[in-house]
């Protein structure tokens, strides 16, 4: 009996220790923090319930083990009502705790939640098999890599390329707690606020075909000043590329104009040669007619 009591006391002390020992884990984003906090709350609720069930199980095994004078069980309505009400309270607690997190705009996007002036908005386009990141306001487009500022709300508008007949993909960054479906012809928004600078690996969470294993991308979280410098650099590179494209277009137009001029010159020369040949043919015909007339006069 003493051994049984010692075992039960040890289990209770272990449970209390687990409850008091809060796990220390660094959250890199507000999304990860919200999900982690919910997991901790549910864990703290599950530990005492699990211990209580195990204690009752051990008590029943020891108390009602096989003996020479077994006693039949009796109905206990009060006990049945107690565990039914307790179960309902636990389920209500879990539901409310989960709803508070799932209803947060960082977890489930709200349609009336639009980016502010200081926020960053990025269009994420998935295709077979890669990722494009489009900063429409900044006029920047990159493939396979996106740069975002820390301590700033960032909105990702996730979709899949419908023109390419793209498959269904999944935008997923595990270390930031980000996950959103990328469906062709449909835009789903997810937002985040990253706390720590660094590179975060993302990938496609849907098995989408033979190129699925290559659908990786990188989110590079940097400070606000570094982000502004990156935007300025990308815009300058974009202007240089536009200038090069314009120069190439002008050269192509000049080459096309030169080819048209050569074609016109060749056509003009062809027309002149045709006129000369026609005149020579007429002169030859006139000469033949004159010879024929002279022959007739001689006869």
Report the CATH superfamily of one domain.
Cupredoxins -  blue copper proteins
Helix content: 40-55%
Gap from first CA to last CA? 160 Å
Q: Characterize the biggest β-sheet.
A: 5 strands, mixed
The ordered H/E elements are HHHEEEEEEEEEEH
Number of helices: 4
Q: What is the alpha-carbon Rg in Å?
A: 40 Å
Low-confidence segments, given as residue ranges, are none
Strand order across the biggest sheet?
A: 3-2-1-5-8
Strand content: 15-25%
Shape: elongated
Average pLDDT, rounded to a whole number, is 82
The count of β-strands is: 10
Structural class: alpha+beta
- By CATH, the architecture of one domain is named Sandwich
CATH class of one domain reads Mainly Beta
By CATH, the topology of one domain is Immunoglobulin-like
